[in-house]
Design brief:
Strand content: 15-25%
Radius of gyration: 22 Å
Distance between the termini: 48 Å
Largest sheet: 8 strands, mixed
Number of helices: 17
Number of strands: 18
Shape: globular
Number of domains: 2
Low-confidence stretches: 1-5
CATH superfamily of the largest domain: Metal-dependent hydrolases
CATH architecture of the largest domain: Alpha-Beta Barrel
């Protein structure tokens, strides 16, 4: 028979924590509840800093200037959920520590939510290091030829690869992401460019969910480029009439995306593709205004997509409209860095109260890196974001851009215990000490899934 304490515990974890009451009330009630000496699975204590990003929505504007930082902090975890966050002295005494409780000292360390990589092209065959060399030697002349040719090369290599090879490559990449503190990822198709292979890539991506620890949200990006032998109009019709219905029928993707760009898919074609995606029940994303302004940002606002990504050349009117609709702008500084292109003006976007996320844009051409820490450094140096702003963009805001902000991205009580311990004395140190992996411990759903203490 369940005890009263067990019944109360079940209520708090499964009903109260999922409700819409304020974080403050959750903390107050939880502190009261913890007077009952609740047993816990995991306690992290004595952290130099905890940056929890407490919020039930993306952080924008003034909220970015008032982010809580807890010194000498502790986090209590039970059944894979966060049950308390605060000062070590206040929290440590409120729990029953048993022989089964894992206790971690984070002395001298900084604790963050697990990074969320909200824009990746995960599953593909081959690599494009020669393209990297070609860019250095300036053998490629135009941006559109560079992007289109590169995508088509990867499509060919991906079709040559077996399912087993693609799965093993995906596992290897996800392991690298996990070691770099990424605990949740959005993964796009887009290197099939025909019905059979787009479905194949999505099926492989879904299989990867059960083969490793990183959580994956899937995105259909059949409209990544126009394959050889088709006009953009012909291929757009195939995407709308054949691919999207098949993806929806098999329930292979949560999101529908399109590369809205000159030489790829026009604003009008992008609108038709996204509307079809919405019609069959998919949520929407868009690659917008990366190489030129194609009014992708304004389309993102009109359709109320979850996120519009890149935005390097977006006009102010479209960005302001996105802010009004609550569309998240995902900035991808690694691409601008590698291709020597324009960096978006993050400070201007934040002045518009546009919620900003950042991502690796992991892909074989212009974003071949699993390091979110490097992205954060670039965001600080090239996008002129402060460290706390960049960290919020890589955690909470990125979680909302991935559609999972209700359960990950912050260290709110009741959320999934996705936590990283950084070998950094404070949050400013993380982008400052670039070029190395400072992630020491990765915790996913309350379990340690990676530990690499640096001597």
């Amino acid at each position: 028979m369940s005890t009263n304490l067990e019944i109360a515990k079940n209520f708090f974890q499964n009903i109260f924590f999922r409700s819409k009451v304020t974080v403050k009330l959750k903390i107050v009630v939880t502190v009261y509840f913890l007077e009952k000496k609740m047993k816990i699975d995991l306690l992290i204590r004595d952290a130099n800093e905890i940056v929890p990003f407490f919020s039930d929505k993306p952080l924008i504007g003034e909220a970015l200037k008032n982010i809580t930082v807890i010194n000498d902090g502790a986090i209590a975890v039970n059944d894979g959920k966060i049950v308390a966050v605060g000062k070590t002295a206040e929290i440590f005494a409120k729990f029953e520590i048993t022989a089964d409780t894992v206790v971690i000292s984070a002395k001298g360390k900084t604790i963050l939510p697990g990074f969320v990589d909200c824009h990746t092209h995960l599953v593909f065959g081959g690599s494009r290091e020669q393209e990297f060399v070609n860019r250095i030697e300036k053998l490629r002349q135009t941006k559109n030829v560079l992007m289109g040719g590169g995508i088509k090369y990867t499509v060919a290599k991906t079709k040559e690869a077996t399912d087993h090879e693609l799965i093993e490559l995906g596992k290897k990449r996800l392991k690298r992401m996990l070691v770099n503190g990424i605990t949740t990822v959005e993964a796009k198709s887009g290197y099939g460019l025909d019905l059979e292979n787009e479905l194949r890539l999505l099926e492989i991506t879904n299989k990867l969910k059960d083969l490793q620890d990183v959580e994956i949200e899937t995105t259909f990006l059949g409209a990544h480029s126009v394959p050889h032998g088709f006009t953009s109009r012909e291929y757009t019709n195939i995407v709308i009439n054949e691919m999207i219905p098949a993806v929806a029928e098999k329930k292979l993707a949560r999101f529908c995306d399109v590369f809205c760009e000159e030489g790829f898919f026009s604003r009008e074609q992008s609108e038709l593709i996204l509307k079809k995606g919405r019609e069959v029940g998919m949520e929407l994303k868009i690659h917008a205004d990366q190489l030129t302004n194609t009014y992708g940002a304004s389309l993102a606002a009109e359709l109320g997509v979850v996120s519009a990504d890149h935005l390097d050349y977006a006009y102010d009117e479209g960005l302001k409209a996105m802010a009004e609709k609550g569309v998240i702008g995902v900035l991808l500084p690694t691409v601008s860095f590698i291709m020597d292109l324009n960096f978006p003006d993050a400070r201007k976007l934040m002045d518009f109260n546009l919620p900003i996320a950042i991502s690796t844009d992991f892909n074989p051409g212009a974003g071949y890196s699993e390091s979110m820490s490097f992205v954060i450094t670039l965001a600080c140096l090239k996008l002129k974001m402060l460290p706390l702003e960049a960290l919020a963009a890589a955690t909470l805001n990125a979680a909302y851009a991935t559609g999972v902000g209700e359960k990950v991205g912050s260290l709110d009580i009741g959320k999934q215990a996705d936590i990283i311990i950084m070998d950094a004395p404070n949050h400013n140190y993380i982008p400052y000490h670039y070029g190395t992996n400072l992630v020491e411990t990765v915790i996913k759903k309350g379990k340690i899934v990676h530990n690499n203490q640096v001597i």
